[in-house]
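A note from the maintainers: we've had questions about how concatenated examples are separated. There is no special marker in the raw files; a new sequence line simply starts the next protein. For clarity in this README we add a label.
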Amino acid sequence: MVKARSSPDMLLLGSTLVLLVIGVVMVFSASAVLAFREFGDSMYYLKRQALFAGLGVAAMVFTMNTDYWIWKKYAKVALIVCFVLLVAVLVPGIGVVRGGARSWLGIGSFGIQPSEFMKMGMIIFLSKWLSERQGTITLFAKGLMPPLGLVGLAFGMIMLQPDLGTGAVLVGASLLIIYVAGARLLHLSYLGMVGVAGLIGLIIAAPYRLKRITAFLDPWADPLGAGYQSIQSLYAIGPGGLVGLGLGMSRQKYSYLPEPQTDFIFSIIAEELGFIGGTFVLLLFTLLVWRGMRTAITAPDTFGSLLATGIVGMVAVQVVINIGVVIGMFPVTGITLPLISAGGSSLTLMLTSLGVLLNISRYSR
């Protein structure tokens, strides 16, 4: 018997809102110079961020107050729609190319990324699928391969754009759900070896990915080319010291660091707010992930537990990849920092997903 709905996890809600506020402030600080140069309005990105943050909060309030079982009912339809959108974005004349990837649908500066919808759509579907087939997940062919095949198909379509960062988040969150659902670690290990071989093949097949790997190993070997972003990111983090240069005082945002308001916004945080500011942001993400996993553990049913696990996994994997890239631990992948980076559909959908997580917390045992 499921307990009556109570208040949501306030620590989870509070960490989400504080991160969102920090994001709005830092997007303005990081983008003011760029926005004035490109649009003649230093508040251009701030206005967009505030708009989508408002839409996202409204969506979060809606999903937080909508019983999460309803998503199980529409899981199959949602996944089909997501695949249709992934096909549409690859059609010339329909999909919009930005940053070298055909990953957008929209007009002008407003658009949506179907791959962002696919992340949540896959999480919901896998949670439904695996919660209804708990007895077969330990079987390789009958239990493990069908969901993995679906994830592989989605990943392949995202790679056609190409968008390795979003694809990695999708695969990471999906594998976490599958593992928590009871898949055998031995089976996943074998498939992991195959996945690593495939990843190496993808890297070799695309020269720009190979350049990113070599730049990751030694960015100073090509300081004005493939290693430029990594070097400029480290130049931002280093001078920040303990307390930073002060809010709004970044030097790297003056056309040195590419995408300071999106992929490398944590570099600006470290430069302006220092070690203390960067650590505070990481602690907030740690709090969010901890309360999210607590929600998954105490959820009243398997579907809710797997759904919460997938949402938390999506956030955690994205944070790890973004911060890893910024500090030079991973090759540059072009992925944003959840709730912090400038974004449209990505920010709105992240808040919508966290609203679902908050609703699950309202039924926690």
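[label: protein 2]
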Amino acid sequence: MSALAAAQTLLFVPGDRPDRFSKALDSGASLVILDLEDAVAPDSRERARTAIRDLLATAEPGRVLVRVNPADTGDSVADLALLEDVSTRSPGALAGVAVPKAESRAYLRQVSDASGGAPILALVETVRGLRVAETLVTRGPGEPELDVRLAFGALDFAVDAGGDADSLLDAARVELVLASRLAGVPAPVESPSASIRDLAAVESAAKHAVALGFGGMLAIHPAQLPAIASAFRPTDAQIDWARRVVGAGSGAVQVDGAMVDAPVLRRARRMLAAVGQAS
């Protein structure tokens, strides 16, 4: 399993702020995403590429993703050139590439090839992207394997969809969860919370994502990371329950007065696997 597939907390950092890189890498985030898109002004992106190239020449492998610009922008050519350069000079340095406004598996393949086969975090931020989400994570006939995990960009999606009702956004979230499940890829990554000081709101959003079936969440500030990690970590009571379910074995058995069938057993095993315990 790749580092991207297992990641639960993914922290964005502007690519033109190398003064923040070390702090981000020491923040406890599963992965750090160095941004070349929304967080960086167009006239600062070349400087950001230089800073990212320098970091990846020395950084511990498997800790850093780069968010490139969308396929239909003038920056995509320079971003792909950066990925090619990094994959040649520092093979294995990239944990993956985040692709915003993902709508085409062909472009995901192009990004993967440029990065030496790095895993892809496909950010679904448009209605079209949502409609083709299953194709983004499904290998076509005769197509080489492509390591893709979906993520949700709620703010951009709301703008594109023309509404921001919770029911609309949750409907989109459910579609991403189901598309991932059907394709057999890791559960998707939730959109970041805009709250930085209200950490209870961050944890509430993360718990909601867990309940919907998400496997991780993006962050825009290191202060958000403990709240997100807490939400995605099974509680001691849940882990104890999972151990007892697995220990009860298969067949017609009961745990805590409830019948344990195959789906419950699978859920318990998945919970133990998430915390690195044998099942």
